[in-house]
Specification:
Blueprint (H helix, E strand, L loop, with lengths): L5 H22 L3 H12 L9 H6 L1 H17 L3 H7 L1 H23 L6 H11 L4 H10 L5 H33 L5 H30 L5 H22 L3 H15 L1 H28 L6 H30 L3 H6 L8 H15 L5 H36 L6
Helix pairs in contact: 1-2, 2-13, 2-17, 4-11, 4-12, 4-13, 4-16, 6-7, 6-9, 6-14, 7-9, 7-17, 8-9, 8-17, 9-10, 9-16, 10-11, 10-12, 11-13, 12-13, 14-17, 16-17
Length: 402
């Protein structure tokens, strides 16, 4: 096999990211949408520049990006903010997350007869909402008000719930694929052990990090230490086969709530990494889309899209009613929760990484192919419709002015 010049492809990838950023800024397109589309164009099925072998070689970029995504999610989980927003936020997050999961699962269970694990994993991915596109619209139009505050809180907490749903779903899926005659109780216990181990590692790492960093203000030192901790946590989670996203999210959340000052200093450093790794993450993610199978998965993809939309919109509205939110929140909140590219893509790549190993055989590889292609196919839809709907409901609610 021809040797792959990793450095050349890295340089080309970031140059493509630069051009994409300039293009999206000029035409006011969400950056993440541009990155995914460029990834599809450069991928195996069109220009064949970022071939499957190249993407595999650059896989560690995506892994590090997963760690950064998880850290940024955890930083948003401030208990003070959650308490201030009250029970309406909790109810909205619960019903929109589980609404999407349940409706997608039962809809696709009829499609994947005999392969329930596919429906289970796609349902867990459906629970996640991408904050990037939604928050970008809010910032662009300087939206303010109860609906805006609720949207920001929901998209921050939503991803944490989605990660927990995914850990349970993936545990059940693994048991189904291996054909093991294990009771649901045993699988549930194994999932709880996995979550518990992620929590223990994340919490212990947070306390150690705070202890080391409490008197350190030098930015170079903080940069070295936060990099060391994120990479070590990625390594530890890979070693113990637990969720890297959940572990690092818990690590970040505990730093945020135990020492906001240290989190602020560390978050400032992480923000420098974000443009580099997220650009690579979304481009490499887009490169996974095989347009040759779109004919096969297009119909299923549209079913997934409509089922998820019903779950998100209906679940959010129900949660707003139960939680006693304002009328405009009840009416509009669900329409701002459709984008899915961020954490959902992270989960899809996590599925590819965890299920494409020899232990799960051809079934594991098939799952990775189906999940990532359905997600990327529907991402093209949600990343166009999502920002438009967010702008529309914010304008109708009177929280932005042209």
């Amino acid at each position: 096999m021809k040797e792959i010049n990793v450095l050349f492809y890295l340089g080309m990838l970031f140059f493509a990211a630069f051009l994409t950023k300039k293009f999206t800024q000029k035409f006011k397109i969400p950056e993440v949408t541009g990155y995914v589309i460029v990834g599809v164009l450069l991928g195996e099925s069109i220009l064949k520049i970022l071939t499957n072998d190249v993407v595999d070689k650059l896989g560690y970029l995506s892994t590090i990006a997963l760690g950064i995504i998880a850290f940024t999610i955890g930083a948003e989980l401030k208990l003070s903010t959650i308490k201030k927003l009250g029970k309406s936020i909790t109810a909205i997050v619960f019903f929109e997350s589980f609404g999407a999961f349940i409706i997608v699962f039962f809809t696709l269970a009829f499609v994947f007869k005999g392969e329930m694990y596919k429906a289970l994993l796609l349902g867990s991915v459906a629970a996640a909402t991408a904050p990037a596109a939604t928050v970008a619209v809010i910032r662009q139009y300087k939206a303010k008000g109860s609906l805006t505050s609720t949207i920001i809180a929901v998209v921050g907490i939503d991803d944490a719930v989605a990660l927990i749903i995914y850990v349970f779903a993936s545990s059940f899926a693994k048991g189904m694929i291996l054909g093991e005659h294990i009771s649901s109780v045993t699988i549930l216990i194994n999932a709880l052990i996995s979550i518990g181990l992620s929590a223990v590692i994340g919490i212990v790492a947070a306390y150690v990090y705070i202890f080391i960093m409490k008197n350190i203000r030098n930015e170079d030192t903080i940069e070295l230490m936060i990099t060391a901790f994120i990479l070590m946590l990625l390594g530890v989670t890979e070693q113990f086969h637990i969720s890297e996203l959940l572990t690092i999210m818990i690590f970040s959340a505990f730093i945020t709530n135990l020492s906001p000052i240290i989190e602020k200093r560390s978050g400032k450093i992480v923000d420098f990494f974000v443009p580099i790794f997220l650009a690579a993450f979304f481009i490499l993610g887009g490169a996974h889309l095989d347009i040759r199978v779109v004919k096969q998965i297009g119909g299923i993809g549209m079913l997934y899209f409509f089922a998820r939309s019903i779950g998100k919109i209906g679940g959010a509205s129900l949660g707003a009613v139960i939680g006693g939110a304002t009328d405009k929140v009840k009416k509009y909140i669900g329409f701002a929760l459709l984008p899915q590219v961020g954490v959902a893509l992270a989960l899809a790549l996590s599925i590819k990484k965890n299920f494409s190993i020899p232990l799960y055989g051809d079934k594991g590889k098939d799952i990775a192919l189906v999940v990532i292609n359905i997600l990327l196919f529907t991402t093209m839809i949600t990343e166009v419709i999502g920002p438009f709907l967010t702008k529309l409901v914010l304008k109708k609610s009177g929280e932005i002015k042209e």
